[in-house]
Amino acid sequence: MNASFDVVVVGGGVTGAAVGYGLAKRGVRTCLVDAVPTFSRASRANMGLIWCQSKALGCPQFVRWGFASSRAYGKLAEELRELTGIDTGYAPTGGIIPCLGEPELEQRAQFIEKLRLETEDGTYPASVLSRKELEGMLPKVPFGPEVSGGIWSNMDGYVDPLHLMFAFRKGFVKRGGTLIAGERVTEVTPAGGGYRLACGERTLECGKLVLAAGLGTRKLAAQLGADIPVFPNKSQVLLLERIPADVLPIPLLGIARTFGGTVMIGAAHENMGMDRTLTPEVLARNADWAIRVWPELARKRILRFWTGLRVWPKDAYPIYDRIPGHENAFVFAMHSAVSLAAVLERTLPDYVMGKPLPPDGSIFTLARFANGGNGFQGSAASSPHAQTPNK
Ligand SMILES: Cc1cc2nc3c(=O)[nH]c(=O)nc-3n(C[C@H](O)[C@H](O)[C@H](O)COP(=O)(O)OP(=O)(O)OC[C@H]3O[C@@H](n4cnc5c(N)ncnc54)[C@H](O)[C@@H]3O)c2cc1C
């Protein structure tokens, strides 16, 4: 079977589905191909936090990019609900980083002060909560004795990541897109100014190609002669029994109530290559931290645990670029794609169709890795504490 499209997007996780949806919405004849996710399943394994605060010291563009997504989320969630009937569970609740002990609170407070100094107008939407203020915001959480307070930002929130991904995909089809689910693209070849793709029994042809295949991107881009520096970053998650909505109405970084009412605990960062083994020591360390924050969690039943591999560019900042030497092939790879989904859906489709990215997004090109470069300084996933579970 042969089929021809203006654009083929490879990868139907949150990133590819957001871009595909945006393209279809703009009337572009688009095909979205998504393999059965095996190793590359971050969109199905994540915590669903829209988390923008306390990240990216040294890169104000990324800070603004995240906040832009947070601000755009309400409209996107409403649009997807109206079009698809799927409630994404979007909840602009704000978010809190709980701190254990005064030194951690102080360190976190200094971190947001530094972020504040980097802003143009000297304001940054996060503030320090004393323990009393924290208890006032979450009166039904009996915090452990070590909890000293927290960092609050009203820019954070929660979305059900599976509902979001499936709403994008359903919306994509409703807007006229062609979804090929359960097929892997195995070969990508330049052909007549565009690309030819082998995909199971099918041959797909397209004028423009988007690689948004998570950890599968590297292998596909290599066929076009490019080395995209994206690596797996492992995380292990615990899922606890349901709690009522009013107990934890605001997510804590590392402990969040899901749309369905269960509680997710996670998630440390491990650089273990493609290893997806669950390790009791890491799960126990995550659980121990959560119990120090909220001792009652020790009495909750564990329903499931799993590992997920984040899609981790070398410097932790996103990659939005053309593949070197290929005017019509694009690569989009990042962690925090759930947080960024609203800004991705707004901007990347226009970029694929020839418009420049907005200035804050336009710096995330591959040029920063040229000649063995390590990319930007700092970390887009920043928590000043490696030992604290973070995203
Ligand atoms: C445990 C964990 C917690 C996280 N928590 C958060 C959070 O709270 N907030 C947040 O913003 N982010 C979070 N993240 C990160 C977030 O999940 C990722 O940034 C996001 O899911 C990446 O989506 P993606 O579509 O780029 O990649 P993926 O989800 O990896 O999707 C890629 C898709 O491409 C497909 N594919 C691969 N190769 C091919 C091929 N050759 N042909 C066809 N299809 C192919 C795969 O099957 C897959 O479906 C978390 C990640 C993990 C692992």
Number of helices: 10
Element order, helices and strands?
Answer: EHEHEHEHEHEEHEEEEHEEEHEEEHH
> Which residue ranges are poorly predicted, with pLDDT under 50 across at least 5 consecutive positions?
382-391
Rg computed from alpha carbons, rounded to a whole number of angstroms: 21 Å
Give the end-to-end Cα distance, rounded to a whole number of Å: 42 Å
Structural class: alpha+beta
What fraction of the residues are assigned to beta strands by DSSP?
25-35%
Shape annotation: globular
CATH evolutionary superfamily of the domain at 2-49 and 162-230 and 314-372 = FAD/NAD(P)-binding domain
Helix content: 25-40%
CATH architectural arrangement of the domain at 2-49 and 162-230 and 314-372: 3-Layer(bba) Sandwich
How many beta-strand elements? 17
